[in-house]
Each structure stands twice: as structure tokens, then as C-alpha cells.
Design a protein that fits this description.
167 residues; alpha+beta; four-stranded mixed beta sheet; 6 helices
Length: 167
């Protein structure tokens, strides 16, 4: 297992045929530096795929409820912010990625998010019935899950996308 900084990895340039980021680049705020590092380590013609939640507009343009949910989500899941899908696409293209395609799959992942309230209640009840204390970190993560659900309900502000492109 490697513990790398995805803004500055130890891999040589043009090393990989493909790179995949599943719900991970959100922890960098979908920063251009992270995308640039993916570009650097990919071989020419290499494919890069991202599956993640994104803002559909700038954070400053979100309604009050969406903005509140976004800030709480970020606070509880150690995110600086979610990147705007349009900005990420522009960044990928400006870095030299070709064939950039973004598909909104929000409705396909929605059923997995709907289990969140049941999972939260089930987790808490299990702790109560087994007389185990609910750790602060667990409560923090449960709150993050709750705000992920609330964010997802703001369909005009948030979306779940698969982005694919080639170097």
C-alpha cells in the first residue's frame, strides 16, 4: 500500500496506462494540481476516469440550504470543498486532456444514498444495545453521511458524475 500525495506523487512521468479516482479527488477540492499530477503520470493516450460528487455551480451561487449542506458535509468529511463540474472540465482541457466527457449519474447513485438514514439509526442502535460508546469520530462521520444525503437532495446544486478523458 502506498501513501502518496496526489498533487505530487513519487511516480515517474508517463508511467501508467490509466488512472482512476473514485470519491478521492474531492479531498483535494478537485484542484487543478491534482488533475495535473494525473496528467503527468499517464502515458500518452492514457485514460483518466473520475467518479465523484461535484457542485453544478459555483459555491457562491448555491441557495442557502445547499450552501449550508455543502459546508457541513465538508466539515464532517475533511473536504475543503467540492469542485464545480464546469471548472473541472475546463481544467482538464486546459491541461491537455482530450475527449473529456462528463456524465451525470446522480439518479443511478441516488438509491445507495437513500439508505443513509437507516444506516445511521442502525449504527446508533447497535452501539446502544451492545453498550458500546459512540466515538466522537463515528458521530462526526455519521453527520457527514447525513449532510451528503441533504446535499444530494439539492439537485440543482449538486451532482454525481463520471468524467473520462485521455492524455
Amino acid at each position: 500500500m502506498l501513501n502518496e500525495n496526489y498533487n505530487n506523487t513519487s511516480f515517474k512521468s508517463n508511467t501508467f496506462d490509466s488512472a482512476l479516482a473514485i470519491e478521492s479527488l474531492c479531498h483535494s477540492g478537485h484542484k487543478k494540481e491534482s488533475l495535473q499530477e494525473a496528467y503527468r503520470i499517464l502515458k500518452p493516450g492514457g485514460r483518466f476516469v473520475i467518479a465523484d460528487a461535484f457542485l453544478k455551480k459555483e459555491e457562491s451561487e448555491l441557495c442557502y440550504g445547499a450552501h449550508y449542506s455543502h459546508r457541513r458535509l465538508c466539515d464532517h468529511w475533511s473536504l475543503t470543498n467540492l469542485g464545480s463540474i464546469n471548472n473541472v472540465i475546463k481544467d482538464l482541457e486546459s491541461l491537455g486532456f482530450k475527449n473529456v466527457k462528463a456524465e451525470d449519474i446522480s439518479f443511478r447513485v441516488a438509491p445507495s444514498v437513500l439508505h443513509v438514514p437507516f444506516a445511521i439509526v442502525g449504527f446508533i442502535l447497535k452501539k446502544i444495545f451492545t453498550l458500546n460508546a459512540l466515538k466522537r469520530e463515528s458521530l462526526h462521520n455519521l453527520n457527514g453521511s447525513f449532510y451528503a444525503l441533504l446535499s444530494g437532495l439539492h439537485m440543482k446544486g449538486f451532482g454525481y458524475y463520471i468524467i473520462s478523458c485521455t492524455k
